[in-house]
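Tutorial, part two.
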Amino acid sequence: MPGNDAACLRAPLEAVMREAGELARVTARRPFKRWTKGDDDSPVSEGDIAVNDLLQERLGELLPGAGWLSEETEDHPERAMKRVWVVDPIDGTRAYIAGRADWTISVALVEDASPVLAALYAPVSDEMFLALRGQGATHNGTPLRASGGAELSGAKLAGPKRYLERLSGLNPQIVAQPKVFSLALRLARVAQGELDAAFASGGSHDWDLAAADLLVHEAGGALTDFAGRALRYDHPGGAHGALVAAGPARHGALVELMRGRMAEFA
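Running the prediction step on this input gives:
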């Protein structure tokens, strides 16, 4: 997709995200159904489904003919199309159900296995993250920049508890941060510079990552697996291994630190 075409979608996408956020908030203010799905008993709620249906309708109107991949929609061959909306209607459903603030709505437009346009909205705190490939990322209109430096002493890190404990053993001066239930928001905090690095355990999916991936990269950071390999959004199943996001120098230091220690973080 030419850059100008994606740029034309940015403002209407933001409007759709705000509409979806309001729907999620309204649903959360009344009693709503929740249940579990899949082998890991992942939670899902009426809010997830309502937002999913709204986004599928609205995004289909924004870009007719694009494919669709969502956590709340059965996988479909159209995900192999050249352009695909990759959506997590509510990232951090446990937080949403519990009445916490750290859940988000995550949408990315992926072209040729890479995100070209991204929106991440945290409705409770009214935070809108937007990114366009090659044109930077913003948080409520303010440009984003991942934190600089390579040092780990004093660095603010968030992620699975076992990862932080292992890293504390390697460098006791890291500053472990509270859990952010939305993985996409955790990674966006790296793009924002609020976190110096963030981790994801293995098993995250395309819909968890695609929007945050573009945010991090457009903020000058890096998001890769522990071997330093960039992500692609076109493989069967859509699941990824353990991941690390940080500014470029610190990302390199973390990848080097974990080199040869993969099993310790499994």
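The longest helix spans residues 3-28. In part three we will examine how such features are distributed along the chain.
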